[in-house]
Amino acid sequence: xxSKVVCFSNITSDNNFDSSNEAALCFGHFNSIHPGHIRYFQxxxxxxxxxxxxxxxxxxxxxxxxxxxxxxxxxxxxxxALDIVDQVIIMDDGSLQDxxxxxxxxxxxxxxxxxxxxxxxxxxxxxxxxxQGIDVVYAAGETRYSSTDLLHGTQSxxxxxxxxxxxxxxxxxHIDLDKLLTKLENLSKSHVLVLGDTIVDQYVACDPVGMSNxxxxxxxxxxxxxxxxxxxxxxxxxxxxxxxxxxxxxxxxADDYGEMVKTQLSxxxxxxxxxxxxxxxxxxxxxxxxxxxxxxxxxxxxxxPLAKDIEDRVLNSILELSPSLDAxxxxx
Length: 332
What we know:
Layout: E1 5-7, H1 8-14, E2 23-28, H2 35-45, E3 50-56, H3 63-66, H4 72-80, E4 87-91, H5 96-103, E5 107-110, H6 120-131, E6 135-138, H7 155-172, H8 177-187, E7 191-196, E8 198-211, E9 218-231, H9 232-241, E10 245-253, H10 256-267, E11 270-277, E12 283-290, E13 293-300, H11 308-321, E14 327-331
Helix pairs in contact: 5-6
């Protein structure tokens, strides 16, 4: 193991770790090092003579994320390979609050995203730092990524982001997680019908080329396109994901997007009841992105009323399903 790397459990058990009030302390899981992390470290290094990175240990990560990231040792070795990093502390035990109390750094430097809201474990560390008179700094500057990164991102980063947002909702609305889980267990016995418009969300990652000589418009180069189910269809997928039996009733075009929606919903455990309408395409909303900004959106849709025969088939399907239904969700 790199000499820069140490485990928090060894620090506490050896009891020979001197505080370093000249150090700047960072924290994160750092599954893959990208330019945003380098800027974060460069900014943090301005606030101390040494840069110490506290790395979230495997055992402290949410279960939904743990199997999707590199092991703590691999992540620590990657950090230690950076010249700007003086020491890496794997948080295999204890909390960031405990480390702040023990280390007594000159500054605790966190990402800008935690300035308005911090998960409870970070909030406790921030309170501890302020109680000890330690500067708490939030890394300034906009984080920018290459255009195609917007369409990817590692599964672990997505899961962690969703987990943090979920924790914020629980805290803001005073929701007890155990009670919520009990209600979700009861949901598994329910049959829910979701009704609404089927939409395919298409994201097009682009690179800016410049301004056109022919007209005052921005010129971009298309890099990559990805399609996702949206509208009421994604609501049905979430209902099924929560454990309920879910039927989804909607109208699509007689096209490839309609087939894509049917296939993906079936794979997600939804029972799709889709009526094809040859007079309209499956609604598609196309968003063009340059770096981390949406440039503009194009909607491909037709809004004329349903034909009488399709309307009758929709109503008959609702009547056939109604005896077994516990709830109907209208998604507009």
